[in-house]
Specification:
The protein is α/β, with parallel strands linked by helices. It is built from nine helices and ten strands. The protein has a six-stranded parallel β-sheet with strand order 4-1-5-6-7-10, with helices on both faces. Strand 8 and strand 9 form a beta hairpin. The longest helix has 21 residues. The N and C termini lie close together (7 Å).
Length: 263
């Protein structure tokens, strides 16, 4: 089994999953996860998730383009028959969940390319604070960067626009993903943040509310991480409640994969 971690907006393939400790930072997928699922391969995947570049241009790729890059990069890791047989589980945060949904939908309809082989070998997705129905914070963020575009040469407003409430992009991806879940019998577990995100003692918001954090599919299970949107991906020890809840689902799915496929 391979576990692929995908960060969210303004995230990083290592920093998103690292918790600050007195002696430095702990990258829990690398340090903690092997202690509870030692037989799994662990990967983190990164992409340009910045929406602004101070005195420079931010990357202009769309959700669709990032999804294509993810499929291509995963396919590059799956060359031999042994590699191609490995089952995949995704652990995704925020925008990363939307990108993975789009990638799996694209793999499901691919024909004649290697990208089609990703979805049949995907067992499930664990979503952490993914705005399936959008986030009001995306609208706030878009307005802020329109105001500051004088110093930000080319902000990537398209990524924020795709995360807004009533986004046509999210609606399209949601409809396609619901069909993909049924077609490939994907396992889904969605965690929501329990605490508001606070900044500068003034700004506070629930970045992804409880309604948006759910897909609403019959195959979906739900849970809560007692942290804000940013800290819900950062665990300091095996006893951290967030780690215990996420790793419990991974262990359960690994057992299911072993029983079903013997690997």
């Amino acid at each position: 089994m391979s576990v692929i971690f995908v960060h969210g907006l303004r995230g990083h393939p290592e920093k998103t999953w690292s918790a600050k400790k007195k002696d430095g930072f702990l990258l829990w997928p690398q340090i903690l996860l092997p202690k509870v699922i030692p037989d799994a391969q662990v990967f983190t995947w990164g992409y340009d998730a910045d929406i602004d570049g101070f005195l420079s241009s931010a990357g202009q790729s769309t959700i669709y383009q990032h999804a294509g890059s993810l499929l291509s990069d995963l396919s590059d890791l799956r060359v031999t028959p042994e590699q191609q047989a490995v089952r995949l589980i995704f652990v995704v945060h925020s925008l990363g969940g939307i990108i993975v949904k789009e990638a799996l939908c694209r793999s499901s309809v691919e024909a004649g390319t290697r990208l089609k082989d990703i979805i049949p070998h995907t067992y499930g997705v664990i979503f952490l604070g993914t705005p399936h129905r959008g986030s009001n914070s995306a609208s706030i963020g878009k307005i802020a960067y329109q105001i500051t575009r004088v110093v930000t040469k080319r902000p990537n407003i398209r990524l924020l626009r795709g995360l807004e409430r009533r986004s046509e992009i999210l609606d399209r991806i949601a409809d396609s993903f619901n069909q993909t879940i049924l077609k490939h019998k994907l396992s889904i577990y969605s965690f929501r943040e329990e605490r508001e995100t606070r900044k500068y003692w003034v700004f506070h918001t629930m970045v992804v509310d409880s309604d948006s954090a759910k897909i609403g599919h019959a195959r979906e299970e739900y849970g809560i991480i007692p942290a804000d949107h940013r800290k819900m991906t950062k665990y300091t020890s095996l006893q951290d409640i967030g780690f215990k809840r996420v790793s419990a689902q991974l262990r359960r799915w690994l057992n299911d994969i072993t029983n079903l496929f013997g690997m």
